[in-house]
Amino acid sequence: MVFTVPMTMAVGSYIVRISNAKGLSNSVSFTVQANTPAITSIVPNPAKQGAVITINGLDFTATGNDLQVSNDGGKTFYSQGKINSNGTSITFTIPPAIAVWVGSHFLRVSNANGTSNSVPLTVNNPKVAPSNLVARMSTTIGKVNLSWTDNSTIESGFQIERAVDANSSSFSVIATSKANTVSYIDDLNTVTLPSNSEAYRVRAVFLTVHSPITVMWLR
Predict the structure, then answer these.
(1) Which of 9, 65, 126, 201 could pair with 213 in a Cys bridge, judged by C-beta atoms 3.0 to 4.6 Å apart?
(2) Phi/psi at 214 (5° precision)
(3) Angle 33-39-45 (CA atoms, 0-180°, nearest 5)?
(4) Which residue, of 70, 101, 124, is where some domain finishes?
């Protein structure tokens, strides 16, 4: 006789016996143990720094799931802290400003019932410079229209800088815009400029880290 232990059966010790038309069998004890956790997928993968990933799997406990990461091919794992779960998924935010997270890693989950399999995760760096910076004179005298392409995903804003010397070696910040901004109007009527040439550059601001600059001469 084969008996399948129900998934809903509580962990613990039980006594089983069989009864049929011929009578009642002897009693035998058995123990139901918790299953070792298992990871089935990580979404998204690859992921970017600062992104929230979902680790899908089986037999995660409600509390006390120790998420562990390895960046040396699975030789050494480091705890990222205890995380709660609904039993089949765990969410985790990839640290946005820790350089060691960029690259290839292995993740696993350990709880009171054991340690799961390890699953690869690739983390990309989202700090990408804006591109296609264009500066045009506005139809309004003394104003310059700036526009660019936003290539980053989790910037906190964009820093707009202007230089007025011939070699564009001395830039100063003129404004900081909000995240996802792709344009800015520079009002030259409000400042006194020592020359007739201006250079602009825009860079994505990511915490204390800036993307490379993009330069465009106005005239």
Answers:
(1) 201
(2) -125, 125
(3) 170
(4) 124
Residues spanned by the domain of 138: 131-217
Element at 122 (helix H, strand E): strand 119-124
Residues 137 and 98 placed together within one structural domain of the fold:
no
- Each residue's pLDDT tens digit in the chain (219 positions)? 888 877 677 778 888 888 998 888 898 998 877 789 999 999 999 988 888 999 999 999 999 999 999 999 999 999 999 999 999 999 999 987 676 788 899 999 999 999 999 999 998 876 678 888 888 888 888 888 999 888 876 678 899 988 876 556 678 899 999 988 999 998 887 776 656 667 888 888 875 556 667 666 555
In this structure, is residue 210 part of a structural domain? yes
| pTM attached to this predicted model | 0.56
Give bridge partners of residue 108 from the DSSP assignment.
68
Radius of gyration of the chain from its Cα atoms, rounded to whole angstroms = 29
Instruction: Return left, alpha or beta for 208; rule: phi > 0 is left, psi -120 to 50 is alpha, else beta.
Output: alpha
111, containing H or E segment: strand 103-111
Query: Residue 98 CB: number of other CB atoms within 10 A?
Result: 10
Residue 101: is it exposed, middle or buried by C-beta count within 10 angstroms (0-12/13-18/19+)? buried
Q: CA-CA distances (angstroms) from residue 117 to 25, 42, 56, 74, 107?
A: 41, 12, 12, 11, 8
Number of folded domains that form the chain: 2
- The single-letter DSSP state of residue 117 is -
